[in-house]
């Protein structure tokens, strides 16, 4: 295995801890990869605004995949290379269906978040990404066409509604989980994989020359596409089964171990994984 030309990483619970902190050792590892000539790209379900602070801190704000692949561009300037939105009719239908199912839908414009009611779980999610939150008086008052809709579950009964939403909305929209309590709804055909495929085609990189890191269902296609798949110990089981390398939990900065493993790629895999404290798949 040779050092990949591109590393694409999920953000929440992969790059960041469960408390949404970027460990210094992870930031240092990203810079080491860049110094070795590897392009590093973030691919996230967050909005461009929500991911911007971390992309800027890492010095990689000029090329970011946001909204689960629905937006590609420079998060510092807001300039988009590619952008897809949910049609207003489909978005309003999704909001009404999710609201009726009791799973707290949130309408993301890219500049702000809109909800249909005041709810502490919605407020918590908006606070995570530090985006302004507004409550629309009626569903028709929701503005324009959203980049994504995110549904928030409050407990197991709400999460059971996710299966119904996937079945109801999945034929017309992209639907996937970014966390057991979060269901992401986007334009049809949108995914992190399709977005990073577009990015690498523009850069002239083949999938075999790329490494991907993620932890959740919405990362699976991207991880399967990349030549090398990496994850952290807190990932969902299907991701761990797919990964070539499993590092410690995101709370321990496990992505730094994965990047260090890539840096040591000239060594036999078993030696590299053992020396870095991870599991070589």
TrEMBL record:
The keyword Zinc does not apply. GO terms for cellular component: cytosol. GO terms for molecular function: magnesium ion binding; phosphatase activity. Keywords: Hydrolase. The keyword Endoplasmic reticulum does not apply. InterPro entries: Cof, HAD-like_sf, HAD-SF_hydro_IIB, HAD_sf. It comes from the Bacteria. Transmembrane segments: none annotated. This is HAD family hydrolase. It comes from Mesorhizobium atlanticum. The lineage of its organism: Bacteria, Pseudomonadati, Pseudomonadota, Alphaproteobacteria, Hyphomicrobiales.
């Amino acid at each position: 295995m040779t050092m990949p030309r591109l590393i694409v990483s999920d953000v929440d619970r992969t790059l960041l801890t469960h408390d949404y902190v970027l460990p210094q050792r992870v930031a240092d590892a990203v810079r080491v990869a860049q110094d070795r000539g590897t392009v590093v790209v973030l691919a996230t379900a967050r909005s461009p605004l929500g991911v911007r602070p971390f992309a800027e801190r890492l010095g990689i704000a000029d090329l970011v995949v946001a909204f689960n692949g629905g937006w590609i561009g420079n998060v510092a300037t807001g300039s988009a290379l590619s952008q897809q939105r949910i049609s207003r009719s489909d978005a309003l239908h999704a909001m009404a269906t999710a609201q009726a199912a009791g799973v707290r839908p949130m309408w993301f414009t890219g500049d702000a978040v809109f909800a249909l009611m005041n709810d502490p779980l919605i407020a918590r999610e908006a606070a995570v990404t530090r985006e302004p939150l507004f409550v629309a008086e009626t569903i028709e008052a929701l503005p324009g066409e959203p980049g994504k809709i995110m549904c928030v579950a409050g407990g197991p009964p709400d999460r059971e509604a996710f299966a119904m939403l996937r079945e109801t909305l999945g034929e017309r929209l992209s639907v996937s989980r970014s966390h057991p309590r979060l269901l992401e709804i986007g334009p049809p055909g949108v995914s992190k994989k399709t977005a990073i495929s577009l990015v690498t085609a523009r850069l002239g990189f083949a999938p075999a020359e790329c490494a991907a890191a993620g932890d959740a269902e919405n990362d699976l296609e991207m991880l399967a596409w990349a030549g090398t798949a990496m994850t952290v110990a807190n990932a969902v089981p299907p991701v761990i089964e797919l990964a070539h390398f499993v590092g410690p939990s995101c709370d321990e900065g496990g992505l730094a171990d994965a990047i260090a493993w890539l840096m040591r790629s000239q060594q036999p895999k078993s030696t590299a994984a053992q020396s870095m404290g991870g599991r070589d798949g």
